[in-house]
Amino acid sequence: MLVVAGLALVALLGIARTLSPSPKGWGTHEQLGLPPCAFPLRYQVRCPSCGMTTAWVHLVRGSPIAALRCHVTGTLLGLAAAAGSMWMLTCGMTGVWVLGRPGETTWLLGGAVLGAALLAEWAVRVAWWG
Predict the structure, then answer these.
(1) Which residues are within 8 A (CB) of 48 and not within 5 positions of it... i.e. 6 or more apart?
(2) Segment 95-127, tens digit of pLDDT
């Protein structure tokens, strides 16, 4: 399972490498055939995840500052995906839990931190830029 999950993360990072970052800072996902985000059309404000794909594209191209400008949480998630994929592949292929086996608390805490960071960044973006 760890090898499959690690390869899935590598695949996502690889897909990000094939895309070109949108000059707007968001909307890069449309190159995958996905529709534009309906959130800004309906509410006149970017959604919490607007810019994440563009951040990953900048990150895998070696432009962390540009990635952070697009989406801070997305950049951190991209870094976590890169590190996590290597950890998963290493643990899965060797059968050894490098740095220990994560328990439920680790996953819950990680999800809570990610969710809080995402909502906090979105609140700042809405308050600052509207």
Answers:
(1) 118, 119, 121, 122
(2) 999 998 999 999 999 999 999 999 999 999 888
